[in-house]
Amino acid sequence: MKLDRPIATAWRVLPGVAVLGWMLAAGQPIEPGGQEANANAAPVERRAEAPAGQRHRLHQVVSIGGDAVVRTNQVAEQVVVVRGSAVIEGDVDSDAVVVLGKARITGRVRGDLVVVLGEVELNGQVDGDVVLILTRGKLGPEARVRGGMVAVGTPPEVDPLAEIRGRPEIVSLGPIMRYLDWGKEYLVQGVFLLRPFPPRLGWVWVVTGLFLLFHLVIAAVFARPLQGCMEILREQPARSFLVGLLACVLVGPVSILLSFTMVATPLILLAFFAVCVFGRVAVYGATGVALGRGVGWAGMQAPVVAVLVGSVLFYLSYMIPVVGFAVYWLVVPWGVGAALIQMFEALRRERRPTFPGPTRPASLSPEAARAASGLMAGATGPATQAMVGVPGTPGVESGAGPHDAKQGVAPAVEPGVEPGTGFGEAEPARSAPGATAPPPLPRMAAPIVSLNEMDPVLAVRVGFWPRLGAALIDGLVVGFVNAITFGEVRSFWLLLGAYHLVMWAWKGTTLGGAVLGMRIVRLDGRRVDWSVSAVRMLGSLVSLLPLGFGFFWVVWDDQFQSWHDRIAGTTIVKVDHTKALI
Q1: How many Å apart are CA 476 and CA 370, to the nearest integer?
Q2: Which alpha helices (H) appear in 187-222, and where do they start and end?
Q3: Chain CA centroid to CA 529, Å
Q4: HEC string of 505-547?
Q5: Pick the residue with more confidence: 459 or 368?
Q6: Which is nearest to 515 in space by CA: 461, 477, 566, 563?
Q7: Are 243 and 332 in contact (CB under 8 A)?
Q8: Which member of 112, 163, 296, 554 lies 3.0 to 4.6 Å from 128 by CB, making a disulfide possible if both were Cys?
Q9: Given CA atoms 193, 198, 201, 206 in this order, what sign does their dihedral have?
Q10: Where are the domains of the chain?
Q11: Signed CA dihedral, 27, 28, 33, 37: sign only
């Protein structure tokens, strides 16, 4: 027995069943192809009251959310049932398909019988194939299968008197089938009713309790950031929703754009999942706090108590069909937005690392300032004498020799020498009458250094996200050039490496870095030359090998360096005015 025909039968009928399953017209007859349908049992039973011996022909019987019955004296063209039961006591000229329901067949199906995620009891005749997908089946003593049989999930119970012409093909899933049964129940009672918490399923209560315990642990461990998120939700609800909605829209395209890195996509999805969980807990807590303020209970201001009360309220809403689905997904953008706003504000408040900068000269006292001015202008006075070491000045011994000058002590001034004029030389104006004094020395001012001439190492260093933005711009440029020239994946990586090697050594930045105002500098202040560029390029391979972990190292590095930055002794800084690329 080959599998071609049964599997082809399943693929032929399942797409149509899927389309019908989403036409949520529960209990209402559907007219495929403009033909009259007999979906529920009542019209069929009225037809069964026809005179004895008369065969009533039915058109296609399609039921979604209801039952379909074909009596002994009836002939249906085709039977399709979704989320209901099919009872076939008469004949079906074509196929019979049951999805998420039960089928009991004691009549004859001239086509194929397909049951998906359901149960079947066959005690009649099937001229075609029997396909059971994740379905528990039972073949009675009067079961006759003229074609083949394929069962995926669990083998059916076959009576020894049952007749199957072809060899049954069984694909058993073993103990996994038990979990598939749980999934089938959740699909019927939860997904189809648009509610995430169907209360009739016992295992759902267990899972919900575990989630509640996990949320309470988050509230206890991360109490401070959780309180910040709850305050943001209370003060900025509209902004939180818009930011979260934008993040939910962009996470997919960004993950696709960064899929070539092999590690960015799973990291982004994992981070987004963590933000979703934390944001959901924040929404639960904000709801509990709001309720506590409304009833005047101060104890509900604690994060753990607020999350507990808010979770209970939301779980109750999750049990309501349609409403539970809407509430569950509306919580996501609010929570994600509040968590992102809280994270960005925390990063903004975080103290950035300080780097040594130029020191300012110590300020002088008024007396020292006047003395310095007197020295520059050639004036004399007590303050001037104190600075040059006149005999009798406190702290300076008279009669010091030349050796004292090496020790920082000014020698005594000889008689006839005026201190402060010519730094120890005799003033000719005192000895020659009518002689004019030399012009005073010009005042010396501190050099003015422009901020643009500061060492770039002292500039603000660039973190992960600006680097990522520049890398995206460079990737788009190189990808466009590669598309119009070589058009191969391997050539793209070669062009990307050569592009960075040349641009780093030539201008110290790339096109993306120039757009975002970034520049590569060496920590020792020297120029980035070809050797440094080559070492940094080879170091990028080291950062890439452990699934790109070296690129993300800049996120928590105190010096804002990735692995290849540490290897090459470089970093990336923010500059106000970059060099022109041309």
Answers
A1: 64
A2: 202-221
A3: 37
A4: HHHCCCHHHHHCCEEEEECCCCCCCHHHHHHHHHHHHHHHCCC
A5: 459
A6: 477
A7: no
A8: 112
A9: positive
A10: 4-179, 202-349, 456-574
A11: positive
